[in-house]
Structures are given as C-alpha cells and as structure tokens.
C-alpha cells in the first residue's frame, strides 16, 4: 500500500510519461494483459489509456489491472490511468520512505 507521500512522488514521476498501453472499447483481453505485464516489468510506472468509455467501465478496468497484475493505482486523469508495480529483480524507482 502506497502512502500519500509516495503517491505524490509517483504522480510527479509520471507527469512526463506517455501511455504505453492503450485499451480500446473492447476492453481488456489476453493480449492487453500480456502488454500490461511486460510494461509493468520493464518500466514499473506506466500510463494506460483507458479508451473512450463510461466511467463505470473505466473503474472496472482499473480494478482488473490492480488485482490481476498486483499493481498499485496511482491516479486517473480523463481517460488515462497511472499504475505502479515494483520490479524486485530490476528496481528503477526508489520510493521515498514515510
């Protein structure tokens, strides 16, 4: 679980990032799950474009990503969500201690 200070830090780190995974109106399928897994492993902090769908469906997508990929939800702005998952084998981001 991320602290408020860590979330603030990750938001600042994510500000300049571009979405690395795009989810269309068809939602999340096996291919999208593979891309999410690959992106989280290599980047730790990613932006995901959630597609032009209703907020309820976006919330379901966010819930799926957090549970299926053991990722932390950082924030959502418009149709873009930010997720973080530490890669124990190759740590790229050192979170501040609270």
What strand order characterises the main sheet? Answer: 1-2-4-3
Mean pLDDT comes to 96
Proportion of residues in extended strands: 15-25%
* Class inferred from helices and paired strands: alpha+beta
Number of helices in the DSSP assignment = 3
Which consecutive residue ranges, at least 5 long each, have pLDDT under 50? none
Tell me the total number of β-strands.
Answer: 4
Rg of Cα set: 13 Å
Q: Separation of termini?
A: 12 Å
User: How can the largest sheet be summarized?
Assistant: 4 strands, mixed
Compressed to H and E, one letter per element, the order equals HEHEHEE
Level of helix content? Answer: 25-40%
Features:
alpha+beta; 4-stranded mixed beta sheet; 98 residues
What this model shows, in words?
Helix content is 40%, strand content 18%. With 98 residues, the protein is an alpha+beta fold. It has a 4-stranded mixed beta sheet, with helices on both faces. A hairpin with a 2-residue loop joins strand 3 (72-77) and strand 4.
Topology record:
Elements: H1 4-14, E1 21-22, H2 30-43, E2 45-49, H3 55-68, E3 72-77, E4 80-84
Parallel strand pairs: 1-2
Antiparallel strand pairs: 2-4, 3-4
């Amino acid at each position: 679980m991320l602290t408020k200070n860590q979330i603030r830090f990750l938001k600042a780190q994510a500000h300049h990032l571009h979405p690395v995974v795009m989810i269309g109106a068809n939602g999340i399928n096996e291919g999208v799950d593979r891309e999410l897994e690959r992106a989280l492993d290599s980047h730790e902090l990613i932006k995901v474009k959630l597609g032009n769908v209703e907020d309820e469906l976006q919330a379901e997508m966010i819930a799926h990503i957090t549970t299926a990929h053991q990722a932390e939800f950082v924030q959502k702005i418009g149709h873009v969500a930010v997720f973080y998952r530490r890669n124990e084998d190759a740590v790229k981001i050192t979170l501040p201690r609270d």
